[in-house]
Specification:
heterodimer, A: about 375 residues, mainly alpha, 12 helices, about 70% helix, B: about 525 residues, two-stranded antiparallel ribbon
Chain lengths: ~375, ~525
């Protein structure tokens, strides 16, 4: 069978696929939610917007849940240390996410304007808060997280919630907000027409540029203002997972080392910037489909950049660097990785097939005259 | 870990899990009933069955949304509040959760979108297939969650690894085919079918009592009555207690449920009523039915059911044995252990979990006082009265539903549903029964597992995240506030649409559509004038 080292790399790729899958699918739901009051001027506009994602948001959200479950199964140490460490931030994210299933389904069930407006703001919060916090969390992973292990390997986080809001993390948070809102507006370009479509295009033209600029800014900051982590002891990629068996040092510019070691990795940041610029151009010339694809590629490039910069680190510890969690020592056992790999090989292709089928069935733009038909029940 | 932190974390888990579990059984049950109704529509071509699927589907949607929202909390709560648990057993416990998402939740969530939005976009047959996939996926989802939960009750196929200082999977097949999980799965999904059936039966009875929607309500009533009767019989016969002879914690739970302090001669009596007294370890005012408990618990007449006093004796021995394992854990971990120490560790490592039970009572679990050991022994048995009463509450609710469904089935086969007013009233007021039974049953299963989070391996107090009490308290307050508002909103919508009934809802829908079309025409005129 495949050896432990290869499986560990495969699972790094698979978790990456799940996170990218989440950002590319549920990302536009978050974006549409956050844009609801900005792009949707009238109640009908907003209903059209919600109905475009109505059949899909739930399936899309499962990418997020699956990423959570897969991290639990493949990287239990990350699941334990990161989620308890980012406790307050994650609790706020969850509360914001609760607003979405209820908001989508309940908003248009009553015609009372106060009821609908309240849900519009709840959906705005449900879109923008998770987008911001996910970006801030990634920024903090790059900065290193203050956590330690005791002698039974119980993780303890010693930072605070407000300690997460450093300038660098706020920039990465804004990158995430800009890219997901932009993604939402490219989706609206595909699925709406008329004034709504024009507004979505205008938003994309601007937000794609903002995404590219903020992402470049974060890159420069990362290169010159953020210290990276390096494993200084020998790495045994086949050893049992125990994060306390290595030495780690903090070095300026260490997050750039992978790019000189593996120059092909530069594709990721390049894709992040160039695809965003392309998205702006395609929105300008009214090519919604290409704008959506460019936005998805830009998101992929941005998330890969974070992963490539840190590899093999997953969650470095700023207060106990040797406790940093890496691809080689934060995974589950060989048997669990093998079993889960087989499960993923069977089910991920099936999931992709029926997800594609559902988008195919629900294809086409939603116009005002479509409201209150059987396929626009929200 | 402070006791307050442990208690707060437990309280939060109980609140969020029990709240989530209000919506889950209804989703499991209604999805199947919707699939049955739509199948009848596709096979007979009668429009009324399509209306039924759509109307009950609307109520299903209100419930589904809040179920999805509250489910998010569960997926992340283990890491947030139970980080040592996640670290220690994630290698095993994470797998079924991830598989649930990949195999079931994706399927359910994708096709539920097509169920709601696909009516005029898909052929009859394809839409029916989507509905069935939702029903099947919601059941698969329950399967994997109960495999995870079954492993907490009866952990098989795993072993402690000293190098990684955690439990690791040794057999995926054992995890998958854990008999406790299988019994739980059948019992829990049947309870879901009962919940869905009772929901439709009660609301249909309401229409019949009001004398409206007669054709709609009669058909719904008949389907719910037959599906409900089959389900309630299966939920009672395939009771979860048949898995209670497996593993120490399950046996203790059973003894506590029956308030059996002393081991009785086989077959044991069933205490129908009584007041359990943990102080004197006796049941006051007991009314007993001979043999019944021996039959329920062991499915035999000659196996005995061990009493709590005998369990305590066994636990004391295992706690003392666990201390021996912890004494040498450090040297074994560091690789400096002598051969004698290694032998000592191997002999006692199966009791390491029992040694951890001492943590709340001593600073050094390798050298506890005799008093600390006694306290730990006492702690190893859950409180009897809450288990004794919730079990009886569950059983009473179950038998009441058996009566309602049996009567409903009898009258619907005689085509006299509208006649017996007493039955319609009873079915309507019986609406809360499945929830009382489900929540009580959940409580028995999980409170009965105390003080363990993973039976015999990891106590609850060792499992919690090292958070501040203020953090956990603030999420309890925030979660409860949100959940309360969400519940009120969902309940309001649910009763509003249920009261309106299918005809009025369809009329309003048509009216809204007409107004929207008018608005759209006006709008396009404006466009032309621009």
């Amino acid at each position: 069978m495949i050896d432990y080292e290869a499986l560990r790399v495969i699972w790094w790729v698979l978790i990456g696929v799940l996170l990218i899958g989440f950002a590319v699918t549920d990302g536009f739901d978050l974006g549409v939610g956050a844009l609801l009051t900005l792009v949707g001027k009238t109640d009908q506009d907003r209903r059209i917007m919600i109905n475009t994602i109505g059949p899909h948001w739930d399936g899309n959200q499962v990418w997020f849940i699956t990423a959570g479950g897969a991290i639990f199964a493949a990287w239990p140490l990350i699941y334990a240390a990161a989620f308890s460490g980012f406790y307050v931030a994650l609790a706020i994210t969850l509360m914001a996410l609760w607003m979405r299933p209820l908001g989508f389904d309940y908003r248009s069930k009553l015609s009372n304007p106060t009821w609908r407006k309240s849900w519009d703001w709840a959906l705005f919060a449900g879109g923008i808060i998770p987008a911001l916090i996910f970006g801030v969390a990634f920024g903090n992973l790059l900065l290193g997280v203050p956590f330690q292990y005791d002698d039974i390997l119980r993780p303890t986080y010693t930072g605070t919630f407000f300690g997460l809001l450093t300038p660098f993390a706020l920039i990465t948070g804004l990158v995430s907000v800009a890219m997901l809102l932009n993604h939402g507006s490219t989706w609206l370009q595909l699925k709406t027409d008329g004034k709504l479509h024009t507004r979505a295009r205008n938003v994309s033209v601007v937000l794609s540029i903002v995404t590219a600029v903020l992402f470049s800014l974060a890159g420069v900051y990362l290169a010159f203002g953020v210290d990276g982590y390096v494993i200084t002891s020998d790495v045994n990629a086949l050893a049992t997972s125990n994060p306390m068996n290595k030495e780690v040092s903090i070095q300026a510019g260490a997050w750039l080392q992978n790019y000189s070691k593996y120059p092909w990795m530069v594709i990721a940041p390049a894709l992040g910037i160039l695809a965003a610029l392309a998205c702006s151009y395609f929105s300008k010339i009214n090519r919604g489909g290409l704008a959506f694809v460019s936005s998805a590629l830009s998101i992929t490039g941005i998330i890969l950049t974070a992963g490539f910069s840190m590899f093999p680190f997953l969650m470095p510890s700023s207060t106990m660097p040797e406790a940093s969690l890496t691809v080689w020592d934060a995974t589950s056992s060989l048997l669990t990785l093998e079993t889960m790999f087989i499960v993923a090989c069977i089910f991920v292709p099936i999931i992709l097939c029926y997800t594609a089928y559902s988008f195919y069935v629900m294809r086409g733009r939603i116009k005002q005259a479509d409201l209150n038909k059987a396929h626009t029940i929200y | 870990m402070s006791e307050t932190l442990v208690e707060l974390s437990r309280l939060q888990f109980a609140l969020t899990a029990m709240f989530h579990f209000i919506f889950v059984p209804l989703t499991i049950g209604l999805s199947f009933l919707l699939a049955i109704m739509e199948s009848v529509y596709v096979m007979t071509g009668k429009e009324i069955y399509k209306e039924m699927t759509k109307f009950w589907g609307k109520l299903f949607g209100i419930n589904f949304a809040i179920g999805v929202a509250t489910g998010l909390t569960m997926e992340f709560q283990f890491g947030m509040n139970w980080s040592y648990y996640s670290h220690y057993v994630g290698d095993i416990f994470g797998a079924p959760l991830a598989i649930e998402a990949l195999m079931a939740f994706f399927l359910e969530s994708t096709f539920v979108g097509l169920f709601f939005f696909g009516w005029d976009k898909m052929s009859k047959g394809k839409h029916l297939a989507a509905t069935w996939l939702v029903a099947i996926a919601s059941n698969l989802s329950a399967l994997w969650i109960l495999i995870a939960n079954g492993w907490m009750q009866h952990p098989v196929g795993a072993e402690f690894n000293i190098e990684s200082m955690r439990m690791e999977m040794t057999s995926f097949a054992e995890l998958l085919f854990n008999p406790v999980a299988q019994v739980k799965f059948v019992h829990t999904v049947s309870a879901g079918y009962v919940t869905g059936s009772m929901f439709i039966l009660a609301i249909s009875s309401y229409y019949l009592l009001k004398g409206k929607e007669i054709a709609f309500a009669r058909r719904s009533f008949a389907i719910a009555a037959s599906f409900g009767l089959a389900s309630v019989i299966s939920v009672i016969i395939l009771g979860d207690e048949s898995g209670y002879e497996l593993g120490d914690v399950q046996q203790v739970k059973l003894a506590a449920v029956e308030a059996e302090y002393e081991t009785q001669e086989a077959p044991a009596d069933f205490t129908l009523f009584g007041i359990p007294n943990d102080e004197t370890q006796e049941v006051d005012y007991a009314i007993k039915l001979p043999w019944l408990m021996g039959i329920i618990a062991t499915r035999s007449l000659d196996e005995e059911v061990k009493g709590l006093k005998d369990h305590e004796i066994a636990h004391r021995a295992r706690i003392i044995s666990g201390i021996e394992a912890h004494k040498v854990l450090g040297t074994v971990r560091d690789g400096t252990a002598t051969e004698q120490e290694l032998a000592q560790f191997d002999a006692h490592k199966k009791d390491m979990g029992y040694g951890l039970l001492l943590e709340p009572f001593t600073d050094d679990i390798t050298n506890p006082s005799a008093e600390a050991i006694e306290k730990a022994v006492d702690y190893s048995i859950p409180k009897v009265a809450p288990l004794f009463w919730s079990f009886r509450l569950m059983v009473a609710a179950g038998f009441m539903m058996l009566f309602i469904f049996a009567a409903a089935f009898y009258y619907s086969t005689k085509h006299q549903i509208t006649k017996p007013k007493w039955l319609l009233k009873m079915a309507f007021w019986g609406l809360p029964l499945p929830w009382i039974a489900s929540e009580a049953g959940w409580f028995v299963a999980e409170y009965g597992r105390q003080p363990w989070s993973i039976a015999e391996i990891l106590p609850v107090h060792t499992s919690v995240s090292n958070l501040s009490e203020a953090q956990v308290l603030s999420t309890i307050v925030a979660y409860s506030t949100f959940y309360a508002v969400m519940f009120v909103v969902a309940f309001y919508l649910m009763q509003k649409f249920a009261k309106k009934g299918p005809t009025l809802v369809a009329q309003e829908q048509a009216e809204m559509k007409r107004q929207d079309e008018l608005l759209a025409q006006l709008d396009s005129k404006e466009h032309n004038n621009d």
